[in-house]
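Appendix B: a complete holo record

For completeness, this appendix reproduces one full record from the ligand-bound portion of the collection. The bound molecule is nicotinamide-adenine-dinucleotide. The inputs are the chain sequence and the ligand SMILES; the output is the full three-dimensional arrangement of the complex, encoded as structure tokens. No fields have been trimmed.
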Amino acid sequence: MGFLDGKVALVTGGGSGIGRAVVDLYVREGAKVGILEISPEKARDLQEKLPRDVVVVTQGDATSMRDNERAVADVTDAFGSLTTLVCAVGVFDYFTEIPQLPKDKISEAFDQLFAVNVKSNLLSVKAALDQLIENRGQVILTISNAGFYAGGGGPLYVSSKFAVRGLVTELAYELSPHVRVNGVAPGGTITDLRGIPALANEGQSLKDVPDIEGLIKGINPLGVVAQPDDHSWAYAFLAAKERAPAVTGTIIHSDGGLGVRGMTRMAGLEP
Ligand SMILES: NC(=O)c1ccc[n+]([C@@H]2O[C@H](COP(=O)([O-])OP(=O)(O)OC[C@H]3O[C@@H](n4cnc5c(N)ncnc54)[C@H](O)[C@@H]3O)[C@@H](O)[C@H]2O)c1
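The structure of the chain with nicotinamide-adenine-dinucleotide bound, as generated:
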């Protein structure tokens, strides 16, 4: 018996990284899964590697209402319903701080980054809403350490993740008592997370940042260098309504303890 038997999920951005780890775990634990993924290569890989009787892939853009509606229709046509929406799309600003943000690119960069990191969540929830309400379902959004602390990106990325945190709070309120809405806030994780065209870093991938493992390990108390799989059980817990019927409006931190770094050790003092 799987932990998620009977669940039917839609995972946006399920083609790589954290979203892909969620897809793989959900399938292993008995869920049926639809995926909305923009990259044709990643969509093809999903189709080739995962069993067609439990996975349906929609290649499309989570910032488009039509593509979200198409993905919801693909899941419900294939599996009869939709109980769980996981939003795991995202793009990064590669730590571009305000002094380095080109004046003539801020507006475009804001639109591109907020479209993927924030607007897509609203569109995905809206597209899935009738199903989620009908099935007393759940929404799981992806925040980040950047939704809580400074320096996990530049001002564009950090403010976008604070906005997603706001969506968890507001949507949990608006959709009670029918739909539970929660989030997961991963810390630094080795993935393919990309930049954006307006900052000319859309070809950059987090996994190619020099000494990314050392950077991540050095800043969290547990000294973990997280891989996508390390977060996926947090998404499974939040999807399992029977195990967490009273949990809504909350965010699971999966970041090696960034909130408990403390001051003495940061200052190089022995406790
Ligand atoms: N990697 C980290 O260190 C880290 C830390 C905290 C939070 N996050 C968040 O985790 C989420 C997943 O990112 P990841 O690190 O796994 O990166 P990733 O690039 O491996 O995964 C994101 C996936 O979303 C897809 N995608 C991007 N834009 C899309 C769109 N408009 N429509 C549909 N699909 C789209 C990408 O092709 C990719 O498959 C993001 O929200 C990211 O901000 C990442």
